[in-house]
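Teaching assistant here, posting this on the class forum so everyone can see the example we discussed in section. The complex has three components, and the goal was to see what a joint structure prediction looks like when all of them are supplied at once.
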Amino acid sequence: MNILTGNDLKTGDVIWWTGLDWSRFVKDATDVGDQGEAVLHREEAARRVNAPYIIAAEPTEDGPRPGHIKDRVRALGPTVRPDLTLKPADPDAGEWVI
Amino acid sequence: MYQYDQYDQKMVDTRVEEFRDQVKRRLAGDLTEDQFKPLRLMNGLYLQLHAYMLRVAIPYGTLNGKQMRMLGHIARKYDRDYGHFTTRQNIQYNWIKLEEAPDLLAELASVEMHAIQTSGNCIRNISSDQFAGATADEIADPRPWAEILRQWSSFHPEFSYLPRKFKFAVIASDTDRAAMRLHDIGIQLVHNDAGELGAKFFVGGGMGRTPMIAPEIRDFVPADELISYAEACLRVYNRYGRRDNKYKARIKILVHELGKEEYTRQVEEEFAHMKDLGLNPPVEELARITEFFQDPPFDLQANDELDLSDPDFALWVDQNTAQHKQAGYAIATISLKPRGGIPGDASSAQIDLMADLAEQYSFDELRVTHSQNIVLPHVRKSDLYALWQKLDEAGLAPANLDLITDSIACPGLDYCSLANARSIPLAQKISERFADLGRQRELGELKLKISGCINACGHHHAGHIGILGVDRKGTENYQLLLGGSGAEDTSLAKITGPGFTEDGVIDAIETVTDLYLEQREDGERFIDTYRRVGMERFKEAIYG
Amino acid sequence: MVEAIRLRDDDVHEEPAVSLDSFLDQSNATAVRIEAGEDARQLLPFLDRLSLIEIDFTVFGDGRGYSSAQILRESGYTGELRASGDVLVDQIAYLRRCGFDAFAPDSPINPKLMEEAFSRYDHVYQATSDQRTPIWKLRHG
């Protein structure tokens, strides 16, 4: 599957395209098929996202898992500061990245 | 320390308002990201892996308690309660909001600080020797020269859209604590035969994917020609540096491709044209700035003896303090490399404490080092014990300066959008593996430097032991390098061979340090033994 | 192309600018246009009879044109020095500091923003072709 990610223009938060809106959680990301470019241009022009790009991801039970480690780090947060990730209560969250 | 006058303050304040306007236009859609990017970068604002990152300049690594406390305040108010001290003596914050950046910058400006030109294809923060003004081995304080260069390079209209970024370092001692020859321009202050102070220029050094040691191109530039000579160096680069390939755009490639002689000839020709254009501040300006860097009021009767009966304190003194030019004083380095910690990170509480300690014990002065530590440059020896106790309570007293666990590490894939592999976890694991201080001290001076990609922000080329993280088919892989140095014996490390997993590279480090212990001769550091014994012997030990 | 912005009082130079190569060939032209990578010093023998030199910016981030402008002004050129192409309001003050006194941007520049850009900084740190007094000179007279 292809999913769309970028950063919130004002806050810089990593965000994922849900099909209707943007979410901070990769589990909400939707498969954009071959519509990625069109959505990306529209959303960027509307300044709802900054520096968006399309990535390949693998659908899993817990939602999409980005294909590249870099985007998995983006999806979680810094592995060396679990307290600052999106899953601060899960000590094994870093395993998902690798 | 240098203090702004009304002009300096106005420049910085104006930049804040200009940036506020640029941010407003970006948020309103009047600027595209392509147009805004160089503007925000020229004010230190990146879009990183998780958020915007702001790099704040600490000119030549010098700051006072009030400024340090402001850095802590910013960490609390605008970030997530910590900051990261960098290899260019700056600090960066990882979680900045674009909409809040102008207010943050306004707060910085209130203590004579800024983020001007901490990124972008322009002249970056001028770095220097962290022991400047405190060490006995310098011929002059390099910082007034760095300040002259700071002002000249700030908002330089001709050199703000260079082929690539441009870094200066200025030192004034034969001992190089600033990796001077690994800069685009490295300057060493020297005396000429007439006893005048001037600048020796080294041009075209750098790390990155094509590391180069800067060759000397001029043995003496007088103080009143410093700026026109620097302009000549920059103009030749701005005109002829490569713009077709970003990876070949640094000045080191130009100097290498033209050859040192031809580059020098072109600079001298440009200089002949420029030197009478009235570009140089008068010597009175250097004198004015130098006044700010006079010695603090040392107690000339201060006791030079030290009670070392507490063994832990004695270890810290031995490892983390250096000789001061004034008897009765010491230069104390606060290591930001605790066991299992993140190299260069400090919490706002730690930053505040260091600010307090500087005010209390070091004539209100701190320094940031290129190895991501903090220096209190002027501590009375009789205060060292009290200082150490307070540092120790706050986890700021690792006695590991220049030892294997005092590693440099770039932010790596945990934070950086350019990285291919994580650097910090490796530094953490190495600090665990070599946690025993006795073992570290047995290994002696050992500069370990870790980069998460070939851009080499972790200085792996200059490590006695260097590690380079690469992406191998989507997994993190680490190459081992040996034999680099960023000191006065500058050398570039060489790759040992095929890469390793994270644990594998740590095992390999243990193999090479074991070999060193076995092979070393009297007084040899790791790097000395490596140079004598040669790479082959180390390769055999690693790869069998 | 939108109308050029001129910071000069003299009449607009009507003759079209020729390329550097044609200029060096025919050499009776009074207006010339040079590209980012071309050597402005080739014009130095002809500065007396040139009334317009246009320096093109294909992309605003190509800084070579700034050095070209400085070289021409340092060598005594007093005619119109025009920056054309990808000329944006956020670079315009620096362009002026390097000696440009006319701008022919691909896209129109908001006059209010341009005025703000020119007047924003009260002082400058460097001596450049615009002859503004650097801060160090203000400090020491």
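For the discussion questions: The interface with chain A takes residues 26-27, 29, 33, 47, 49-52, 80, 94-99, 342, 413-415, 417, 419, 422, 424-425, 428, 471, 474-476 of chain B (CB under 8 Å). The CA atoms of residues 129 and 178 of chain B lie 5 Å apart. Think about how each of these relates to the inputs above.
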